[in-house]
Amino acid sequence: MNISSNLSQTVTNRQSELVALVSVYGCAAVTGAVLSTTLFLTIILRPQLRTGSGILLAHHQLLHMLQTGIVSPFYIVTGWGVFLGASIDGINCTAMFFVCQIVICSEIWSSLFLAVNRLIALIFPHYYSRISSTAAIAGFIITAWVISVAVNLPGVFGIGSYFAKREVDCGYTRVTNQHIFNAVGILGKYLPLALQAVVYGVILFHHFRAQNGLQAAAKKRFNLFRLLLCSYAWYMACYAPYLMTYYGFRRYWFADEVRMGWFMAVQEIGYAGSPVFLLLMNKDIVKIAKEGLRIRLRDYREPKLEEGEQGDKGY
Predict the structure, then answer these.
(1) Which of 100, 35, 89 is closest to 285 using CA atoms?
(2) What is the DSSP letter of 23?
(3) pTM above 0.85, yes or no
(4) What distance in Å separates the CA atoms of residue 286 and residue 289, rounded to the nearest whole number?
């Protein structure tokens, strides 16, 4: 989060807008955390969903939970909350930023591996059993974390950039090497996002060519791809304004720090909305979630009878 040191004076005159910004950002984070947690628990607690792709999806939602439940509050408090009375005295900005960047990069790389999973399932189904094995799924998950740690570790030692506590907030204190700084962003975030677009494009091309010959199993696998594609498209639609403004209009970006925050809030809305497609548009997940809810309500409303005890109707 790049917030200049003269932010205090700018924000002091725009307290009402800052409150609105923090409110929107916070509501988006809470919504994303609730939806991701619901989807994660639905997958983990239902054996029929714990397939190869299901475990990858659960891992992705776990990272999504960390993103909206830890990373976003950290950015809210250290970026703008300090001007609304929050304190960062007990926060290790460098360590927290390192953890946050690992979560963000791991979430993006896990999205790519989900896309690769769908690519093989739909185009190379004979090899799908190999990539859905326990070892392969563990490999995807570990790889996402290893890449994220490796990419962000240099920043802890001030290589490329340094993120630390400043006078009133947490932020980049300096960029020590512009090339390394750019490489971190490319390898950690933008490369996997771009590769996802390529993978989804290949799948769509193959689908339209072979649509008439799709079997039932392939159609079911395509349904999950369709939901992942919608989630990806929504996220990129919310992320694009941030990227285009930050890299294409840097003077416009840094001229107004509160306006910068609104771009980041729109990106957070992208995080919050992504699980909606998977949670509400997947018939299998919706059906299982409803069944689980009905069972829990029934258990709550109809307490078990003790042995030898009869109910109201004498059963």
Answers:
(1) 35
(2) H
(3) no
(4) 5
Alpha helices for the chain (secondary structure H): 7-12, 15-45, 52-66, 72-79, 93-123, 128-131, 134-156, 178-185, 191-210, 216-248, 250-255, 257-280, 283-301
Angle between helices 216-248 and 93-123 (to 10 degrees): 140
Q: Dmax over Cα atoms in the chain, in whole Å?
A: 80
> By C-alpha distance, which of 117, 123, 108, 124 is closest to 52?
117
What structural domains does the chain harbor?
14-292 (1.20.1070.10)
Could you report the per-residue pLDDT of 32-46, keeping only the tens digit for each?
999 899 889 888 888
Cα distance between residue 26 and residue 74, in whole Å? 11
Residue type, 278: L
Residue 279 and residue 43: Cα distance in Å, rounded? 10
The secondary structure element, H or E, covering residue 162 is strand 162-165
